[in-house]
Design brief:
The complex is a heterotrimer of chains A (410), B (629) and C (148). By secondary structure, chain A is an alpha/beta fold. Chain A contains 9 helices and 23 strands. The chains are: A alpha/beta (410), B alpha/beta (629), C alpha+beta (148).
Chain lengths: 410, 629, 148
């Protein structure tokens, strides 16, 4: 009987646990997580917006651990791994032995080196359930919120709090909102939607300093322009960093992220890593896929994990939906096609007969194939006249054996 | 013909006529009843009337993702346009029938041919305000009055409308601007309207349906009957056999299908003449017999008192024709109009039955065409007779007999018309009005129109009729509904037992069934004359009468034109299935709700006999209450 | 598990499958094609019939894939592969409408609801004993349920 230990209960950790249980119905599986409950960080805003309770933002059934006979060590932080003894240490004095270990510790928010920001008790991230609890508490005392960063995390927090009557100011260094996923037009649509809900944007501006009270709480953010923005608390959404402390403390190779090979093995024997902490991708589906691949390898099923295609996202704020795949920023030598109606905005970037970027704002139904086309570099030359109406019908094929579809690409 | 019996073991549809259902199921030939199953998957867009194939951009279909056709037409336009097209085509059919009928009367006058009812002629001349030097001249004048109206352009009002229609209705029609112009012109104009990228105004198109309804009803229906009565004789109430038992294999049997009794005027008499009978006898038969089927069979049955020698009786409605032919004892089919199913063709082929068409508009693919022409009727008639005798000789003994002698009954009350019923009541409507006022008869329901099979053969018609009579509502029928109901015995005096206690007592006392058979669909015009005369006697308008119409199993475009007449008359009109309109909420609302404010009528859609009867009874109760009776 | 097998060569593009799907999933409480509102976006079909550009049709139906991209991408647990019946099941209550599934289905099957709060995806007519309405509605037998 093997002992499997998983650090982290996010997308990668939980998927790994599920996969291990599938292939190893009898073995011991233990999940250790900082949060008490399993939650989907992509739904954290639904908790913060008081739309759902804690169980409502879980992505597994309430009895997931019991049903799958998995030990869940909740609310405990792993401090160190002894890769020689094959032991995980957590809490004050506890340890867990393993035969195979998966580190799926995720990533943490990053605070840039702005005076007072790293020390102030009223500067929060928006990654973990505990972050949401802290913000919820702070919100009882003051409703003026300053958000640093207008990426998906910042806008998630903003959308949740503006529904609750917050006065929100969002500072974005880039000249538009969601700079990684949008172009100027798409960004303007989202900006207008948030402004209509009372949010204020400061674009192309960064915070450079802050005014603090006697307890060290930031009461005013000072912008590069010298302007002072009063606030009750701050949410940092200016980027994340893979959590590598455990690896570093344990002699596992990690620089910016934990290093893994194509089987998601770390430098230490029988220690694997998956999800954000590997730095391979920052989106949920990839983290989950890594969890699955790592677990298969841990279970002895040789699985090569192919590098993910990280440039992909969808967003849905106030019913404004967007699909953004590929590199919208790389337009040199590319053909850019745009389709715009009062209800829709679509943009395709084509280079050497292949789609390299695709943006769709509006009804994004049935548009999953664009990711597939971009990720796999499928030739679309000859189809550019209907680039915004491509469907699987254009690549139709059927796997006669099992009735599934199969791309037929010439 | 498919000889694989395995394929024929498939299900047939249900029929209100259970013995017939069993008979059809065992047939070694394919009928419409067999084909229902294979066509059970209906096109939803078609059912809702939102499939448009008026142009090469189409077919366009309305979906949530594509709510408009390529041209920009929305569901309301598409539905209204399809509906008006159907009504216009249906109107054209009836106008064709009245045109031929008037021409027959005119030729009869010009050639001083046999006139069977001078009474009918004088009545009609009086109604139309026409005089003549003698009865033949009068025939010509009456026919000309009708024909000249039909041939008027659409922008010129027809002159007979005000003479034929009830004054309060004419008043309302003038207010609504729906007095029809020349009947053929109306069809023409409205077909134009519905062509590609012409009218897009759904309300205007629905109003046009009413105008077409008026010309269809007054001319195509009412006048056709009255013109035919002159030449072919007045209906007389009598008891007659119905169903497949009427077929006598000892005779050379000719099945007649269609709607134009006038086209049989010559041949039905000729078949009785000595030399022709001698030919039949020489071939080994006792003589000739006509077997009734579809509405023209109903017409012969209605006037059957004049044709007892040649007319065997009515075998069944449109969807029985294939079964009737399968019995083996039919030697020829003479057809002149619709309800002649293409499905009979392979059966005729297989059983060597001669098919002859008398009118090119209903030319069947494998039939001979001998169009009726007054001038050449004698030579044509003899040719037809020889062809039929030839078929008789070739087939008898060589094709299997599959007679169904137990089918139907021999005491169906027929021959009911506005004239014969009034005479039966003692020359006045008062006895009927008294029964209605006293509540012994709660109201009148015209259960009219066709027979269809897609949802069961005559099943809704029969279920609804039984429900209505059980509620003391007297049912009057016209069309293929008559054929279905008579075969299941609802027009025999014994059917009184199925009626509610009050109606039953009335029926027993008078010796009549609770369902009175006015004959063919054309006789819907007769029902409406009855209604008008009752309304006149009561001094009320038609919408006030405790009268409802149901075309429960409407089938054809003609039925929709009839229905448009009922709506123009202000009558509540029940339909079992929607006429391909539900894809437009506007059209549906206008027809089922707003029409009340326009004419007083409205469409009631209900596929269930009991709940439809509930609704119709409620309408009757409501109207009784308003009349304080 | 069962899967709807497709023979595109038999498809005539009548869209009866789409109407049957709309009827099977209508939320207005009505029944019967005559009252199905064909203009209401909330009645959209879960299957689509697309032209193949050569005069034929390519039916696009959820495959309930053995390894479903959509469920793999779901961050709310709303979409899950049920290993007992093989279906990719959807729980609208759990769904956070992030539309990662829309992005991830390489065949472009999932659609988004008009209110942008749900995903529109085949449920194999789990509420109907007779099985998928689309299959029963196909006059050409271009789609049929088979065991795999």
């Amino acid at each position: 009987m093997e002992r499997f230990v998983i650090i982290g209960a996010g997308a990668a950790g939980i998927r790994a646990a599920q996969t291990l249980r599938k292939f190893r119905p009898e073995d011991l599986i233990t999940v250790i997580s900082i949060d008490d409950t399993v939650h989907s960080r992509c739904m954290l805003h639904k908790y913060l917006g008081h739309e759902r309770d804690a169980q409502g933002i879980s992505f597994v059934e309430a009895d997931f651990f019991e049903k799958n006979d998995i030990t869940h060590i909740a609310g405990e932080k792993v401090t160190k791994i002894d890769t020689g003894l094959k032991m995980v240490y957590y809490g004050e004095q506890y340890s867990a032995p393993y035969d195979k270990l998966l580190i799926a510790a995720g990533s943490g928010f990053f605070i840039p080196p702005i005076p007072h920001f790293r020390e102030a008790p009223n500067v929060f991230g928006f990654r973990d359930f505990s972050d949401a609890l802290k913000i919820d508490e702070a919100f009882l005392k003051g409703k003026r919120v300053f958000i640093v960063g207008s990426g998906l995390v910042g806008l998630d927090a903003a959308s949740a709090l503006c529904e609750r009557g917050a006065q929100i100011t969002i500072a974005e260094m880039a000249p538009r909102v969601m700079p990684l996923q949008t172009d100027d037009y798409a960004a303007s649509i989202y900006q207008k939607a948030f402004e209509a809900h009372g949010c204020k944007f400061l674009l192309g501006v960064g915070a450079t300093d802050a005014v603090v009270d006697e307890k060290g709480n930031i009461t005013e953010v000072i912008l590069a322009t010298g302007e002072h923005i009063p606030c009750d608390f701050i949410i940092m959404a200016a980027g994340v960093r893979p959590r590598i402390e455990i690896a570093q403390n344990s002699g596992i190779a990690a620089e910016r992220a934990i290093q893994v090979d194509d089987h998601l093995r770390t430098s230490a024997p029988d220690v694997y890593a998956a999800g954000d902490c590997t730095g391979l991708s920052g989106v949920w589906p990839d983290a989950a896929a890594q969890g699955e691949a790592a677990a298969e390898n841990m279970a002895g099923i040789d699985t090569v994990y192919e590098k993910p295609y990280p440039f992909k996202n969808t967003s849905n704020f106030f019913g404004v939906t967007m699909l953004s795949v590929g590199r919208l920023d790389l337009t040199e030598g590319a053909e850019i096609l745009i389709h715009r109606t009062p209800k829709e905005y679509k943009k395709a970037i084509i280079k050497d007969g292949k789609l390299t970027g695709y943006l769709s704002l509006g009804d994004i139904s049935n548009s999953g194939l664009y990711l597939h086309l971009i990720k796999n570099g499928i030739d679309v030359s000859g189809k550019t006249d209907k680039i915004f109406r491509l469907s699987f019908s254009d690549f139709y094929g059927i796997n006669e054996k099992n009735g599934e579809y199969a791309y037929s690409v010439s | 013909m498919n000889s694989c019996t395995g394929c024929l073991s498939r299900n047939t549809c249900q029929s209100a006529d259970k013995p017939m259902e069993d008979y059809i199921r065992q047939l070694p030939l394919e009928t419409a009843h067999h084909r229902v199953e294979g066509q059970s998957t209906k096109c939803g867009f078609g059912l809702q009337g939102v499939c448009c194939r008026l142009c090469a951009n189409g077919p366009c279909r309305v979906t949530p993702e594509a709510p408009k056709g390529i041209c920009g037409a929305n569901a309301d336009t598409i539905v209204a346009r399809n509906f008006l097209r159907a009504v216009a085509a249906g109107s054209g059919c009836y106008i064709h029938v009245v045109e031929n009928t008037a021409r027959q009367l005119k030729n009869t006058g010009l050639h001083k041919d046999k006139i069977r009812s001078e009474k009918a002629l004088n009545h009609l001349a009086e109604l139309l305000g026409v005089t003549g030097t003698d009865k033949y001249d009068l025939c010509v004048k009456v026919a000309d009055a009708v024909l000249s109206d039909l041939y008027r352009p659409e922008y010129e009002p027809m002159e007979l409308v005000e003479k034929l229609a009830y004054a309060p209705r004419v008043k309302r029609w003038k207010e609504l601007g729906i007095m029809p112009g020349g009947a053929k012109g109306e069809v023409f104009c409205n077909v134009v309207k519905t062509s590609t990228n012409l009218s897009s105004d759904p309300v205007e198109m629905l109003i046009s349906c009413l105008r077409l309804g008026i010309s269809t009803g007054l001319y195509g229906l009412q006048l056709t009957n009255l013109l035919n009565d002159v030449v072919l004789g007045d209906p007389e109430i009598r008891s007659a056999p119905v169903g497949m038992n009427v077929i006598d294999p000892d005779y050379i049997n000719i099945l007649i299908t269609g709607h134009q009794h006038s086209l049989f005027t010559y041949i039905q008499d000729r078949l009785l003449e000595e030399d022709v009978v001698a030919k039949a006898k020489a071939a080994g038969a006792k003589g000739f017999k006509l077997v009734g089927c579809t509405c023209v069979g109903q017409d012969l049955q209605l006037r059957g008192a004049h044709y007892t020698e040649i007319f065997d009786g009515h075998a069944g409605n449109n969807y029985i024709s294939e079964a009737v032919l399968s019995c083996g004892a039919i030697d020829a089919v003479l057809s002149e109009f619709n309800c002649t199913l293409p499905g009979i063709e392979p059966i005729c082929e297989e059983l060597k039955i001669k098919q002859i068409c008398l009118d090119v508009v209903a030319k069947k693919a494998n039939a001979d065409l001998i169009p009726f022409d007054y001038e050449t009727r004698q030579a044509d008639g003899d040719r037809i007779i020889d062809e039929v005798i030839g078929a008789y000789k070739a087939r008898r003994g060589n094709v299997p007999m599959n007679l169904f002698t137990s089918h139907g009954n021999r005491n169906t009350l027929t021959g009911v018309s506005e004239g014969s019923l009034k005479a039966f009541l003692g020359g006045s409507w008062k006895p009927l009005i008294d029964l209605i006022v006293s509540g012994k008869i709660k109201g009148l329901a015209g259960v009219v129109g066709c027979s269809s099979v897609a949802y069961g053969h005559d099943t809704l018609t029969a279920a609804l009729t039984k429900e209505l009579i059980a509620r003391d509502i007297l049912v009057l029928t016209a069309g293929c509904s008559s054929g279905g109901l008579e075969n299941i015995g609802l027009m025999t005096p014994e059917a009184a037992d199925l009626a509610g206690p009050n109606l039953k007592a009335v029926c027993k006392q008078l010796g009549v069934p609770p369902v009175l058979n006015f004959g063919p669909c054309l006789a819907i015009g007769r029902l409406e004359i009855v209604a008008t005369e009752i309304a006149r006697e009561l001094g009320v308008d038609l919408p006030q009468l405790p009268l409802v119409i149901s075309a429960a199993q409407w089938l054809e475009e003609q039925a929709l034109a009839d229905g448009a007449f009922a709506l123009a008359l202000g009558l509540p009109l029940h339909l079992g299935v929607p006429p391909f309109i539900t894809g437009s909420s506007l059209v549906t609302k206008v027809l089922t709700e707003d029409m009340t404010g326009l004419t007083g009528g409205r469409v009631i859609i209900d596929p269930d006999g009991k709940s439809a009867a509930d609704k119709l009874e409620a309408v009757i109760e409501e109207k009784r209450k308003a009349l304080n009776i | 598990m069962k899967r709807i097998f497709i023979d595109p060569t038999k498809c005539d593009g009548c869209k009866n499958c789409s109407l049957a799907c709309m009827e099977a999933h209508r939320q207005d409480g009505g029944t019967g094609i005559y009252t199905l509102d064909l203009q209401d976006p909330s009645n959209q079909s879960r299957n689509r019939i697309l032209t193949d550009g050569k005069g034929g049709y390519n039916p696009i139906f959820c495959r309930h894939c053995d390894i479903p991209d959509c469920a793999g991408a779901c961050m709310s647990g709303a979409l899950q592969k049920n290993m007992d019946n093989g279906l990719v099941e959807y729980d609208a209550e759990k769904c956070a409408a992030c539309y990662m599934c829309v992005m991830s289905c390489r065949y472009g099957v999932p659609a988004i609801s008009p209110d942008r709060k749900r995903v529109i995806k085949c449920d194999f007519c789990a509420h109907l004993e007779e099985g998928p309405a689309c299959v029963r509605a196909c006059p050409k037998k271009a789609i049929e349920v088979r065991e795999v």
